[in-house]
């Protein structure tokens, strides 16, 4: 696919498959690694699909995740883009020392030590949810019964917010991650509700702190966070902390069950759980939109000059199938090691909660293998439906039986 300058692809690229990639990925990597695309907003951007290009740009500290200038591409359709117009986008530092301080303060809640402390409770919650699912009988929707409620419980524990409000979080999150599912008025109203909810929560944490992240940040004498930053942090963690992992639990399980020999291999050798999780992350074709970088100075990528004022989207999912980096990149190798995939990004803006996501995915798989060894998809793989209209990718449902 040699892309002429005038040829512009619509992004996200269409894909008729659920668990397999669009053919365009390999074609672009081979012949047009810096493609011209338009977002759902209609704005122009460039698309990277090669591993080395994607990793280099994501790790380049010169470029921020999004641009606020007039020449920065808007993502969502309509005149309101929740990601760039939200309190979160306006308040949280995107680069420099402020960003480093913010990350350092949050990092202590996502360390290996914290994950080891949380792991038994995550396993206990996963077992409870599986027991409730099996008590209702098969078939069941693994995403609704396990994939969604587990990470919501975890992030609510970390933030000290009530799990009972999880349906509100889900709606607020979806509007923030909107591509073309919600109107501008719906998005504005939703974000106002989200901000008001967290403002009240932050005020309560200042007055009556608990053993949670927001309480610590709200009452830290060394690095006092203003209310707006605390609200934005809560928004970001609630959105990122449940939406992506909830979807990944369903996608990972579907990938492993689509070829029964994979599930049998894990039953025979549970030590494969950790590399299997990494391989599922690498092979995820419905990872979502990708990571945005706003290029405000001229750079060269794959022999092309990118002009200042260009918005570039990095497709980590396409990069993760680059044959130049991964042997037999299209194959699911449950024992693949090393596995330097880019599912969590790279550099200073790599996913803050990746240790938490890995822990939740590993624990979920361990619990399912132990409690439901006969688990299987209740529908043909071809009947699985993809989530549409959101920045994150996933499956609408994951019907299973046992």
Automatic annotation (TrEMBL):
One matching Pfam family: p450
Family annotation (CDD domains): Cyp158A-like
Name of protein: Cytochrome P450
Parts forming coiled coils: none
Highest taxon listed in the record's lineage: Bacteria
Known cofactor(s): heme
UniProt cross-references to Gene3D superfamilies, sorted A to Z: Cytochrome P450
Similarity comment text for this entry: Belongs to the cytochrome P450 family.
Keywords: Heme, Iron, Metal-binding, Monooxygenase, Oxidoreductase
PROSITE patterns: CYTOCHROME_P450 (PS00086)
